[in-house]
Design a protein that fits this description.
InterPro entries: Cytosol_ACT, HotDog_dom_sf, START-like_dom_sf, START_lipid-bd_dom. Pfam families: START (PF01852). The chain has seven helices and 14 strands. By secondary structure, it is an alpha+beta fold. Strands 4, 5, 6, 7, 8, 9, 10, 11, 12, 13 and 14 form an eleven-stranded mixed sheet that branches. It has a three-stranded antiparallel sheet with strand order 1-2-3. The longest helix is centred in the first third of the chain and has 24 residues. The two termini are about 45 Å apart.
Length: about 325
């Protein structure tokens, strides 16, 4: 296991002892790296106290334990330099996995506590500004998906979930390889009226207005999740085919406001600022689908079902067909 030496003065400033120690006690701080992440590291610290008799008998008093988080202070152009660590013992595995759980809890708590009222995420839409909104819709998704420092949150044989966190930004990206052509996947994902056929998190989807072959406005209704209210969304979908070899197919979504779709009684109107799919061709009958979603407003606005579930249901549709 990797052990980092910590300056005792730094540890003493951050650790408040929970149990009694007396003048003359010898304090021993034991520090071990539990896990490293892209730009932070968690160090577990155990504090033991000895008096003369306890020192001779080698029977310390455990007076505190703590987890110290060290954040990498990057300057522009720097690359995160924390090396990856792994475990070699059963206790090391416990500490390694526990650090991942604590990081997820800290991340969720930070975004919930920093909640503040935001202006509406949706923007007015009409045919006079469709070109501008469509361009921005695609550009926002491309920039969001292209951000650096995506951190693996969960990786399995079929689905990989990554998280990107900034001061006021939390993004989730789900990746999965699909055994079909990129064009076929693009055709299905770009038509939201087909979504209820393979995604049980969609009650219905109606086409509100089609601006052209690349921009369409949809009204989506979703069932309640975990006992909450049913929700509905009004999305502008912008789709683009690759301009050259190697470019992905793009299906971008964002919330818009249209006068023909007022609030529906019994449904909570929800919004998403930036979400969608990038589809990369891997061959004639395989492609990689990346679903990216920007969480905003204290995680209350969500693109229908959780990202991983939506993409997983999409793959199941192909396995059954």
């Amino acid at each position: 296991s990797s052990v980092w030496l910590l300056p005792l003065s730094e540890v003493c400033r951050h650790v408040s002892l929970q149990r009694a120690s007396s003048v003359g006690d010898r304090l021993v701080f034991k520090a071990v790296v539990n896990n490293t992440f892209n730009n932070s590291i968690e160090v577990g610290v155990r504090v033991e106290a000895y008096n003369c008799e306890e020192w001779t008998a080698n029977k310390p008093r455990h007076i505190n334990s703590a987890f110290l988080i060290y954040q990498l202070a990057n300057t522009p152009g720097d690359v995160p330099a924390f090396p990856q660590v792994t475990y070699t013992t059963q206790d090391g595995e416990r500490r390694y996995l526990s650090a991942i759980v604590r990081k997820r809890i800290r991340m969720a708590r930070k975004h919930i506590l920093s909640c503040k009222e935001e202006a509406p995420l949706s923007v007015p839409w009409d045919k006079s500004n469709q070109v501008y909104l469509g361009y921005n819709n695609v550009a926002a998704l491309t920039v969001l998906a292209g951000k650096q420092d995506w951190e693996a949150s969960s990786i399995s044989d079929r689905v990989a979930v990554y998280v990107h966190e900034e001061v006021e930004l939390l993004c989730v990206q789900v990746q999965m390889e699909v055994m079909t052509s990129a064009l076929h996947a693009f055709t299905l994902l770009a038509d939201l009226t087909l979504r209820p056929l393979w995604d049980n998190h969609y009650l219905s989807c109606e086409e509100v207005e089609r601006a052209d072959e690349e921009e369409t406005v949809y009204h989506i209704k979703c069932p309640p999740i975990n006992g909450g209210k049913s929700r509905d969304f009004v999305f502008l979908l912008s789709k683009r085919q690759p301009c050259k070899d190697g470019d992905p197919y793009v299906v971008a979504l964002r919330s818009v406001t249209v006068t023909t779709v007022p609030h529906v009684e019994g449904f909570l109107r929800s919004e998403a600022k930036c979400a969608g799919f990038l589809i990369h061709s891997l061959g004639l009958n395989s492609c990689k689908v990346r679903q990216t979603h920007q969480h905003t407003d204290c995680l209350r606005h969500s693109l229908g079902p959780p990202c991983s579930l939506a993409l997983y249901d999409f793959v199941l549709a192909f396995s059954v067909a």
